[in-house]
Specification:
Elements (H helix, E strand, L loop, with lengths): L1 H9 L2 H33 L2 H37 L3 H36 L4 H16 L1 H16 L3 H25 L3 H22 L18 H10 L1 H25 L7 H37 L3 H28 L1 H6 L6 H14 L6 H13 L3 H27 L1 H35 L20 E6 L5 H12 L2 E3 L1 H11 L3 H7 L19 H19 L2 E4 L3 H4 L6 E7 L2 H12 L3 H23 L11 E4 H4 L1 H13 L7
Parallel strand pairs: 1-3, 1-4, 2-3, 4-5
Helix pairs in contact: 2-3, 2-7, 2-8, 2-11, 3-4, 3-5, 3-6, 3-9, 3-10, 3-11, 4-5, 4-6, 4-9, 5-8, 6-7, 6-8, 7-8, 10-11, 10-16, 11-12, 11-14, 11-15, 12-15, 14-17, 15-16, 15-17, 16-17, 18-26, 23-24
């Protein structure tokens, strides 16, 4: 690990991007091409109506993919978290429950799609001309849903288990097999769209088998009957860890569903009809996904470079990496823009022939809908960049802005004004606005980087005064409301007992171990808001808060095993719940007294003090709930709960010290 960290901080940025980005690009391209293969062969073997039918069925498979990624990515993140806490059995339960719920939901979805396929197709914009093709294709695809969902769930877990190559091989094997079987079933056996569907589910079955065989080969855990026993607490946690992947996929489903319905509605009012727009826009979106996959692969590969150097305060390297990533991404998007504008007829021809009206609308779509695709070279990497440096809110905003916040409203409004062309205009409008938002965020952040290079933070040293030494080892954990004086009480207790205080020292130790700056750790630890959940997932892995929690848990256990001490915050009472000689304390006080203390010691006015107290306590409660599945202010989690103002600061210190010195509490 140390070697890799040194590389991230010392190796040439260009070499690092090449090393980390190429595997990401390959994986993402395989996924994108997998979705396109059927349409290429269907276009030549069946015609554009066959492609239109697959575009209508596609959202159904995306819904299934959303759930399988939620369970798979959630289980893989849970695996990483619990392994970091040295809890292999709990890690195995997370994986077992993730796979188990994926199996149940996959079977359920298979039944739902088979029973309600006609209704689902209507919801996703199917027309009468596309219906027979869509029903034939959809019914066979539905049979393969269990293989696709379980295989995808396992794929994420295998990657987290430390076998990314195996994960990639199983995925590539399925993609290659699908490519080989499509022409056989479509052209040799003359099976049309049904043949393409059979090729797809057979390929998914092979990927599923390869991934299922890996279960007995897990490196870090062992799956047994106990692992797959349903645990609703674990299932909820796994689902929350994977919610980012679910939202990302479902946002795309929403876009396609609304888009298909609008294309069908306004297409009938134009010379193009309903089927041509539905077919063409679906193909164009999948082609543009290739562009986005390359850009996303570059940015995801650079994520550890951004994160490490930002944390280590090597802001010149952060800016260099950002410059190179944006430069490469803009070059790729510019090449794509040129192709989309100059040879759209050649691109659409890859998916079979069509009449003059079909070609005309395809050219319009490429040139209009993807007019500002160059902006993707900035917008996509920006979301990854802000996630890497711990700015979860900005990352989540950028990730959701283009699809949900901008594109859908733009399609609805503009189509109402301009008809079928309004839907095409919505593409550049959404791209342009999303780019503007990303550019503003980036400019402001780079200015902050420049300022931080000048304003180095001062590291506050903590001095302990030894009054007397304890004969026996004791660890005191102090959880506290913001403004209750808990940190100060912890300092006084440590001084009076002659033991060490661990508060800011934990930050310093983590900084020393990882090479990350103390400021960075302080900004990202013990702060979990709702937007943090949107930054776990297939490409991100554990986010900043999760990584820091794992590191801090390891350090807290190490400290507790070594010496007597006072540990402030950081879920220490939960982390050390199984250890002996741990005294767990919670400090609270009234809002009135917390505000007075905030005004006196933090120089805040009354209104700002109350707002900050509520905000920080809410973040602490969210953080505690997320990692412990318990309520932060549930007094049953502690040995003693003290009102610091009701009892008094000095009396609180004496009370804690007296408890520590009781013979019945401290034992050899």
């Amino acid at each position: 690990m140390e070697k890799e960290e040194n590389i991230l901080g010392t190796e040439k940025i260009g070499k690092l991007i090449k090393k980390f980005s190429i595997p990401c690009i390959i994986s993402l391209l395989v996924n994108s091409l997998y979705n396109m293969v059927d349409q290429v062969f269907i276009g030549w073997g069946v015609g554009y109506l066959g492609n239109g039918a697959t575009n209508v069925v596609f959202p159904i498979t995306m819904v299934c993919l959303a759930f399988s990624l939620m369970f798979g990515d959630g289980a893989s993140s849970y695996l990483s978290l619990k392994l970091g806490e040295k809890k292999e059995k709990e890690a195995a339960k997370g994986v077992g429950n993730g796979v188990m719920i994926s199996v149940v939901v996959a079977i359920l979805f298979c039944a739902i799609v088979l029973i309600f396929l006609p209704q689902l197709l209507n919801a996703f914009g199917c027309t009468d001309a596309l219906r027979d093709y869509a029903l034939g294709y959809g019914r066979i695809i539905a049979i393969g849903i269990p293989f696709m969902m379980i295989g995808t769930t396992l794929n994420s877990i295998i990657r987290a288990d430390g076998s990314p190559k195996y994960s990639m091989i199983s995925m590539v094997t399925g993609a290659v097999l699908n490519t080989a079987l499509d022409p056989i079933f479509i052209f040799v056996f003359k099976m049309g769209v049904e043949g393409a569907a059979i090729a797809t589910i057979f390929s998914q079955f092979i990927t599923f088998i390869l991934n299922a065989l890996y279960i007995k080969r897990f490196k870090t855990i062992k799956i047994n009957k106990e692992s797959i026993k349903p645990n609703w607490t674990i299932l909820r946690k796994v689902s929350m860890l994977g919610i980012s992947s679910f939202i990302t996929q479902m946002s795309f489903v929403c876009v396609v569903a609304i888009e298909n319905n609008l294309l069908g509605k306004y297409g009938t009012e134009s010379k193009f009809g309903s089927e041509i727009p539905i077919t063409v826009v679906g193909i164009v979106m999948k082609i543009s996904q290739i562009l986005n996959s390359i850009i996303l692969g570059i940015a995801v590969g650079a994520q550890p470079i951004f994160g490490y150097n930002y944390g280590a305060r090597k802001f010149d390297r952060v800016k260099e990496a950002l410059k190179k990533v944006l430069g490469l991404s803009v070059i790729i998007s510019t090449i794509a823009f040129i192709l989309f504008q100059t040879i759209p007829d050649k691109l659409i021809a890859l998916f079979g022939s069509g009449n003059e009206t079909y070609i005309e609308f395809a050219c319009l779509t490429f040139r209009t809908y993807l007019l500002l695709c160059i902006c993707n070279g900035i917008q996509i990497p920006s979301g990854i960049f802000f996630q890497a440096i711990g700015k979860s809110s900005k990352s989540a905003i950028l990730s959701l802005s283009r699809q949900i916040v901008l594109l859908i409203p733009a399609m609805i409004i503009l189509s109402n004004v301009f008809g079928i062309m309004g839907i095409l205009y919505a593409g550049p409008v959404a791209d342009g606005l999303a780019f503007t938002l990303a550019a503003v965020f980036l400019v402001l952040q780079v200015k902050k980087l420049n300022k931080k290079e000048i304003d180095e933070p001062k590291i506050e040293e903590q001095v302990n005064n030894d009054y007397k030494q304890l004969d026996n080892k004791i660890v005191i954990t102090i959880a506290r409301e913001y403004g209750s004086g808990g940190r100060y009480i912890g300092k006084l207790v440590a001084n009076k007992l002659g033991i060490k205080l661990y508060d800011k020292q934990i930050i310093a130790n983590i900084a020393k171990e990882t090479g990350l700056s103390e400021e960075y750790i302080k900004d990202n630890e013990q702060k979990r808001n709702i937007l943090e959940a949107l930054n776990n997932g297939y490409y991100y892995g554990l986010n900043n808060s999760d990584e820091l929690f794992v590191k801090e848990s390891e350090l807290i256990k190490k400290i507790a095993n070594k010496e007597s001490c006072v540990i402030v915050g950081r879920c220490a009472n939960f982390i050390l719940k199984d250890q002996k000689n741990v005294l767990k304390i919670f400090i609270h006080s009234s809002m009135e007294n917390k505000i007075k203390r905030a005004i006196k010691y933090y120089n805040l006015d009354e209104a700002k003090a109350k707002k900050q107290i509520n905000q920080i306590n809410k973040l602490r409660a969210n953080h505690y709930k997320y990692y412990t599945e318990k309520e932060w202010n549930d007094y049953s989690n502690y040995d003693i709960v003290i009102d610091s103002d009701g009892v008094g600061i000095e009396q609180t210190v004496d009370l804690i010290c007296n408890m520590v010195n009781k013979k019945e509490y401290v034992t050899n």
